[in-house]
Amino acid sequence: MSTPDSDAPISPLAGLGIAVLAVSTSAILVRWSAAPSLVKAFYRVLFTVALLAPVALVRHRDALATISGRDLLAAGGAGVALAAHFASWFESLNHTTVAASVTLVQSQPLFVAVGAWAVLDERVSRRTAVGIGVALAGMALMSVSDFLTAGGAPRPLLGNGLAVVGAVTAAAYVLTGRSVRSRVSLVPYVVVVYSVCAAALLVVAVGRGDPLTGYPPREWLLFLGMAVGPGVFGHTVINWALAHLESSVVSVSLLGEPVGSTILALFLLGEIPTLPTVLGGAVVLGGIYVSAS
Q: What start-end ranges are recorded for coiled-coil regions in this protein (predicted)?
């Protein structure tokens, strides 16, 4: 596969491993922040843009200037989809457990596989399909814990529904990235996507009347942490991997996020996973191995 940045300095699968570790911290940082959901999402993306824009302007100025109108439009669509993903998923974490929310939001491979077949004409191999099926079965098992734990979540049905909306919009984001990234280099692409995403989140947050200032230093550090960890080392690395791997492989590998987030939630938030959560996590990892190996 030839791409604008096809000389990968590291293995794409190793890059995915780094991304999974980084995005696994996202739910914890979101939970720690007391700011409104849209404000958290907005500053996460805004700070990510602030970190990457200087690199784009200094080292990728020509690539930025030569992005076609079609690719700009597609990148803009990916940015709107990403904004919808963040808005729904961050709000989901206010109503359900970390394990259930992160697990359900990563049900995106189901939608990615269908979309890749319908839109990108990608064939999903039998091995990948089996891996996705196994991983989704593990996710369903993990989700059962949300209903077995009395008082474990304030509004699990709402939270889980919002997480599924986040999965659908994340699939749209991944599929659009897969298409555009075959023609546009990583940094220019993500700067455009994140800029549109931040603008969309800002419009909605202002429309809702959420305060954008007046937060204590701890909140600003959390916003920055969301940008550096899940933003730069998570989503940006994922976009890099999309230039080298099939979108279905990238998506199913991200099913490792629920496992990582569940473990972090145990130690940092005191959320003790139930037996279905532990067993489901093991099944998810098995599905990832089958699909990506």
A: none
